[in-house]
What does this fold into?
Amino acid sequence: MIQAQKGTKDILPEDSKTWQMMEENALKIFNNANFQEIRTPIFEATELFARGVGDSTDIVNKEMYTFEKAERSITLRPENTAGVVRAYIENGMHRQTPPIKLWYKGPMFRYERPQAGRQRQFHQLGVEMFGSTEAIADAECINTAVKYLNSLGLNSLDVEINSLGCSKCRETFRNKLRELIKPNLDKYCDDCKLRYEKNPLRILDCKVPDCNELLKEAAIQELINTDFICEECAEHFTQLKKYLDALNVKYNVNKQLVRGLDYYNRTVFEIKSNSLGSQNAVCGGGRYDGLVEMLGGPSTPAVGWAMGMERLFTLIEKQSDAKLDAFVVSDNPIEALKLCEELRGQGISCDFDYSARKFKKQFEKASKTANYALVLGEDELKSNTITVKNLATATQQTIPRNEILENLTK
RNA sequence: GUGAGUAUAGUACAAUGGUAGUACGUUGGUUUGUGGCACCAAUCAUUAGAGUUCGAUUCUCUAUGCUCACACCA
It folds into this structure.
């Protein structure tokens, strides 16, 4: 027996209604906010992710599905921002009047050990906005995410925001942090020792209790809490908070929020739920003003986010399939199909039994799957009528065939 | 990559060192053109391999799958 690959899942009919709802709401809300859908290939040159996502990230280091084909190195996309930026540059979208507002949805691939809220193939929904440095752009981005979540009935998720500053202020902060950590470095966990070299900011994000204790040291807390970011960046962050307040978007500032992808600067944010298990982030994003240029385009500011749809799925209320409008009960399958065809053409959903089983069995099926049973037996065929039975009220009447539509819609 | 737990019908759960049950589902029936209820019947399972044993689905080991957690991320 061949099974689905580890970390992949079938989305079965019983869940399709819920997925369709997530997608329909996305289409409606993003289109209304003037985001346009973009669909990019699910595989790209490996180099795009190495340069775009950053080769010091775990995603690029050890989680990519990479293969060789015709002497090219190809990778299944582990996220979609790099791909969208590539498409933005390649299709000359930077020549259009900014801002360019895009959204996407689709499967992403990461080679990780699966667990709750984590699969090897999973789906993300995201928006990317190019061409504006204004904090109002960040605010609209976050607001769009919140409004989308609200549309799914999720009203009490935590929005956390932070500012990483620009590359200059981050450099200063990084150096100061290193200075403070250095005396106790040997007490930190092995991962943090590596982080100390590569990306010390991530030490702030470490979940090892010992490291957390060490970070509580007064001087370090003071450094975290003093606004290390430069005046310009601080002003940008202040503006963002002002706009979010004006939009009535509730948020917490989390000074220890550091996102794992290398391309972020200034605004970063996450939206979390406490009912998701340990993978509690539904949505993550931020500003990435340097990425377009790094990937060979003109210097272009940008901001965006991505949501994990499987994680959303576990949070929202399951939608069940609506019943069919009608089920045709007949001992004459071909006539039943003809009737169905006629009704389907009128926008009525209906089905029938292929094997002309006993009426009792057909009614059983009808009552489970449909609102009306339409009896088309010998009598009805002779007299060109149909017996319409309302399965909820158990009332029925025989009517001329051409009056069927009125009787179904009332 | 590291660690923990788990594996019985289509699904959800029982039980047992000797005959594996229940519920739901599915199919058929309770006299032939009327459903939801009830009753009857059928259908369907011990992940794989090795070991201990007179005998293993049960105990042990290995593999594999699944689940969860760490790292990391949506």
The longest strand of chain A covers residues 100-109. DSSP finds 16 helices and 16 strands in chain A. Chain A has a mean pLDDT of 89.
